[in-house]
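Format notes (please read before filing issues)

Several people have asked whether sequences and structure tokens are stored in separate files. They are not. Every record keeps both together, in the order shown below: the sequence lines, then the token lines. Line labels are part of the format and must not be stripped during preprocessing.
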Amino acid sequence: MTGHGQRGQEERRTTVRGRRAGFTVVEVMVASAVMATVFIALMGFFSFARRSGSLTENRLACVHIARDAMEALRGLAYADGALAPGRRKRPLPGFPTGRGYYDVVEASDGTSKDITVVVEWVEPWGLRQSVSLTTSHSLALHP
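Then the structure lines:
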């Protein structure tokens, strides 16, 4: 009888080990849900990072365009026709029409002009953006 009792214990041990050898359906479902949540959060982060990078790249390119246009305008004489006062949207010198504009406002004493350059663009997802630079053009420095 002792031999028979030992075999029963071995069967029980095997059965207990067999149950513990793998994962339960509940454990697999919980692990899958946690992994899916982490994956979705990471995808959202990467999407945001890509958009942010695109926005920064476009903004930087437009700042360079605005600076180039501003330098071209600052090189003109104070009385040059391109710097005639008026709040009308004039195309940027050296750039295609529609890329941006500039306007000129003369000070009340007639000794300086404020030049504002605006560059506009549309992000790939439809968001309209612009960057503007303003400088003063003095009669004393640019006769």
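For reference, the curators noted about this record: The two ends are 120 Å apart (CA to CA). The longest helix spans residues 25-74.
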